[in-house]
Amino acid sequence: MNSAGRVRAAAVELFATKGFHGTGIRDLAQRAELSSATLYHYMGTKEDLLVEIMTTALQRLLDAAEQVTTEAGDPVARLRALVALHVLAHAVSPGETRVVDNEVDALSADARGRVVALRDEYEQLWARIIEDGVGCGAFHTERPAVTRRALLEMCSGVARWYSPRGPLRLEELATHYAELALRALGNPAAVDTDEVRRCREVVARVWDIPVRAGN
Amino acid sequence: MNSAGRVRAAAVELFATKGFHGTGIRDLAQRAELSSATLYHYMGTKEDLLVEIMTTALQRLLDAAEQVTTEAGDPVARLRALVALHVLAHAVSPGETRVVDNEVDALSADARGRVVALRDEYEQLWARIIEDGVGCGAFHTERPAVTRRALLEMCSGVARWYSPRGPLRLEELATHYAELALRALGNPAAVDTDEVRRCREVVARVWDIPVRAGN
Amino acid sequence: MNSAGRVRAAAVELFATKGFHGTGIRDLAQRAELSSATLYHYMGTKEDLLVEIMTTALQRLLDAAEQVTTEAGDPVARLRALVALHVLAHAVSPGETRVVDNEVDALSADARGRVVALRDEYEQLWARIIEDGVGCGAFHTERPAVTRRALLEMCSGVARWYSPRGPLRLEELATHYAELALRALGNPAAVDTDEVRRCREVVARVWDIPVRAGN
Amino acid sequence: MNSAGRVRAAAVELFATKGFHGTGIRDLAQRAELSSATLYHYMGTKEDLLVEIMTTALQRLLDAAEQVTTEAGDPVARLRALVALHVLAHAVSPGETRVVDNEVDALSADARGRVVALRDEYEQLWARIIEDGVGCGAFHTERPAVTRRALLEMCSGVARWYSPRGPLRLEELATHYAELALRALGNPAAVDTDEVRRCREVVARVWDIPVRAGN
DNA sequence: GATGAATGAGGATTCATTCAT
DNA sequence: GATGAATGAATCCTCATTCAT
C-alpha cells in the first residue's frame, strides 16, 4: 500500500477503536509509519480526514444499496438485499462503519450537515421499502419508523462484535440477519441464499475486498 | 441539585454527546457551573468519573434485570421483561447508557476489566433466558449467540434516537420492542401490557425518575 | 504534642526529605493530621513556616555555640567544643539542620538576608577561633578560610547520614569529628571526652531532647 | 551551543540553584531560549532530564576516578588523587555535582535505585583505598566508614562555595584539600603537586573544560 | 478551633499544525 | 517527498490560599 493509503487505513483503524478525539496526529503517524509532518502531505486537517472517511463510506454504502435493491424484486426481496448488504458492509469494513456510526458528533456543524444528509438519504431507502412492504401486506408493523430504527441499529451492531476470524461465515451471518429482520417485520419467510450471495459479490466488488471461500 | 450532582450530570450529558475524549475538563466545569479547580473537590480524575458513571449504570441495570426476570414466569415472560426493562432504561437515561455503550475503549485496562465483567454478567442473563426458551421450544433460532447480540444492539439503539418529548409513550415503545424481539425469536405472541407496566414501575423506582402520565 | 507542634514537626520532616518546593500544603496537613485549611490556624504562609524553622534552628545553634565556646579555654578546647556541638546538633536534629543547609535558596530575598546574616554570624565564631589558634601556633593551615569551609561542610554532612539507631553513639561521633578537625588543623591532640560530654549536656538541654544512655 | 545543549545547560544551572522542584518548565524554557513546547523536542520528561544529568555526571566521575587511582601507586598517592579529582570535579562543574548531591530525593524510586547504585560504586572506591591505607599502616582512623563520609562531605562541599573567579587557583584548592584529607587520616605527608597536576589534566580532558592558566 | 467549599494561578505535558530545509 | 524544529493553544490536574460556616 502507498503512503496515502496507509494514512487512511491508519485513520480508519484508530478512529474506530480509540475515537476521533482519542486519536492523536502522532498516533496516526506512527501507525502509518510516517513522521507526523509528512502526514500533512497526504491529508488536510485531521477533520478533513474524518470527513473523507465518512462520506466515502456512506456514499459507497448508498450506491451499493441502490444497486442491490434495484436488482431485487418485491419488497421482501429488496429488504432482504438491504439487510444483507448492510450487515456484510459492517462485517467487512467494521472500521469505516464504526467511524460513521460513532463519530458524527466530532464533526463541525458544516461537515456534519453533509454527512447526516447522506445518512438520511440511505435511511430513506429503508423507509421506502418498509413502507412498500406494509402497503402490499407483506410486512406487519404498527410503527414502521420505530421498526426501521430498531432494525438499522440491530444490523449496524454487527460492526461491534463480528470477526471474520470466527466460525461464522459471512453468508451465514447475512442470512441470519435477513431472517431476523423479516421475522420482526411479521414475514417469517425462508431466505433465498442466492440473493445473499449476490449481495456478497456486490460487496466484494464495491469494497474491493477479496471475499475468500473461508468466509 | 448540589454541586456533586451537577458534576455528575454534566459528565453524563457531555460524555454522551461529545465523547469522553471530546469533553474537556473546562467543558465539565462550565456545564456544572463551577471552576475547573473546584471540580476536583467532587471527583477524582476524569477517568474516575467515567468509571463511576459506567459502573453504577451497569450495576443498576443488572440489579433491576435480576429483579424483573425473577418475578416473571416462563422464558417468554422473562424475555419480555428483559427487553422492556432494557429499552426503558435506555429511553429514560440515554446519557448513561450511551456512555456505557460507547466509551468502554476510553477506559484504562484495569477499569475496563471491571466494567466489561459487569457487562458480561448482564449479557449472561440474556443468554440464559434465550437458552431456556430454545430448550423448551418457545424460541426458535439457529444461532442463539448471534441472535442475542442482534437483539441487544437493537434495544440499546433506543438511546440513540428516542426522545421522551416525542409522540411515542414509554410503554408503547417498550411494548413494541418486546414484540419485535419475540418475533425475531420465532414466537410472535401478543405482549402482555401488564408486564410492561410492571417494568416501567421498576424503572421509575430504581432510576428515581418520575414517569409521568405523559409518557 | 499539640497541633502547632505537629505542624512544625511535619514541616521539618517533610522539608528535610522532600525539600520546600517538593512539599505541598496537603502533605503537611496529612502528616500533621489536620485538614489543610486548619493548618492556617497554626501558621502564616508556607514560607513563614520555613523562615521560622530556619531562624530558630540557627539562633539556637548560635546561642549554644557562644555558650560552649565561652566556657572553654584555649583555641584548641574551643574548637573541639564547637565541632562537638555542631556535630551533635546535626546528629540530634538532622531535619532542622538539613533544612537550614539546603533550603536557603527557597527563601524570598528579604528572608534570605536575615537567615544568611545569622549563618554568617555563626561562621564568624569558627573563623575567630581558627584565627586565634593559628595566631598562637596551635593550628597550622595556609588557608584558614578554605579550611574553615571544609570543616564546616564536613561536620554538617553528619545530618545526611548519621542515624541514632545505628551502633555509633553520639559522644563517639562527636569525639571522632573533633579528632578529625584537629588533625586537619595540624594539631593531632587527644580529645578530652569530658568536654564532649559537656557539649552533649548543653545539646540535651537546649534542644530539649532526652539524650539517653543508649546513644 | 545548539538547542539540546542549551536545554541541558539550563537544567543543570537551574536545578543546582533552585532545586528540581523549584524549577519550572517555563524557567527552563526561558533560560534555554525556547518555547516550553519546544523543550520537549530535546528531552523526555523533566525527570528524565534530571536522571540524565545525574547519571552522566556520576558515570564521568566514576570513570575518571578509576583512571586516576589506577595510575597512582600506594594508598597515599591514590587517596591524594581521589581527593584532588573529587575536589576539581566539584569546583569545575559545581552545577552537576550539586544536582547529584542534593536532588536524589526528587527521583522516582526506580531512577533513584540506579543513581544510588552508581554513587555507591563510587564510594566503594574511597572505602577500598582507605581500607588499604589502614591495612598497610599509612592511615590511622578508628572508624574508617565515618571518616570516609566525613571526607566525602568535606570535599563535596567545594561545589557550594568555590568560585573560579576568586583568587584561589584550582591546583591550590585541590592540593589544600588533599593535605586536609591526609592529615585527617593521620598521615600529614607533603602533597606531590605533580600528581595534582595530572588530575587536573584528566579533569580538563574528561570534563572538556579548558583549564586556563588563570586558575 | 476546625473545615468543606471554592478558586486563580500555575504545574507538567501534549495538541494539531506550520515551515524552512 | 520527507522531516526536524518549532510553537500557541490546549490538555488534565495541583498549587497555596481564603472564607463562610
TrEMBL record, chains A, B, C, D:
Residues 1-61 form the HTH tetR-type domain. Keywords: DNA-binding. GO terms for molecular function: DNA-binding transcription factor activity; transcription cis-regulatory region binding. SUPFAM superfamilies: Homeodomain-like, Tetracyclin repressor-like, C-terminal domain. It holds the Pfam family TetR_C_24. Residues 24-43 bind DNA. InterPro entries: Homeodomain-like_sf, HTH-type_TetR-like_transc_reg, HTH_TetR, KstR2_TetR_C, Tet_transcr_reg_TetR-rel_C_sf. This is TetR family transcriptional regulator. It comes from Amycolatopsis sulphurea.
